[in-house]
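Need a sequence for this fold. Nothing fancy.
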């Protein structure tokens, strides 16, 4: 079992780690969408059994990887199968120190289940029943986040230019005062 602070993914930055209560909430929401009717699938052992047992429609292996690569999201949740650790990252993870983990956007529009049986059983990719409408919201949020990041960067650059202009003005003003003082002293 990986402790809450030990879960790691790559590539990307960890934007935040979820609290135990938030992990349980994420888990409940994921189960409500993807494993609600998973009787006999033994999701207590592995959440991805909902897919391997056919309780929820999914694609696996190479097809799953291709579908995963097509998705759009700005913030991605990674939930370990141990139900203790979850984090938010900025890039689609392709590696994790948990052997079994789920990846999904906050909207739960889709999910990718990475398994310790990779290549034999999994990975699995599945879509929410309302995938189309949820993805539209994800794309909109992603564009909004990108726009805000660009605006922040632009504001930072403009602030730097303004600061440089102020410093240049101060240097010119100081030189002018020094020149005036020299002129007064020499006359």
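Here you go.
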């Amino acid at each position: 079992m990986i402790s809450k602070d030990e879960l790691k993914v790559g590539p990307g930055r960890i934007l935040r780690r979820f609290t135990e209560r938030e992990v349980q909430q994420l888990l409940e929401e994921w189960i409500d969408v993807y494993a609600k009717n998973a009787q006999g699938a033994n999701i207590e052992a592995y959440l991805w059994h909902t897919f391997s047992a056919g309780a929820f429609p999914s694609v696996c292996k190479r097809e799953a990887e291709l579908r995963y690569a097509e998705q759009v999201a700005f913030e991605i949740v990674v939930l370990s199968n141990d139900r203790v650790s979850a984090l938010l990252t900025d890039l689609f993870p392709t590696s994790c120190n948990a052997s079994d983990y789920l990846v999904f956007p906050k909207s739960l529009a889709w999910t990718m289940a990475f398994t310790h049986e990779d290549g034999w059983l999994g990975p699995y990719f599945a879509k929410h029943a309302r995938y189309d409408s949820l993805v539209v919201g994800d794309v909109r949020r992603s564009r909004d986040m990108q726009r805000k990041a660009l605006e922040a960067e632009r504001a930072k650059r403009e602030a730097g230019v303004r600061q440089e202009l102020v410093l240049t003005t101060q240097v010119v003003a100081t030189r002018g005062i020094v020149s005036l003082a020299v002129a007064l002293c020499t006359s």
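For context: The chain is about 45% helix and 20% strand.
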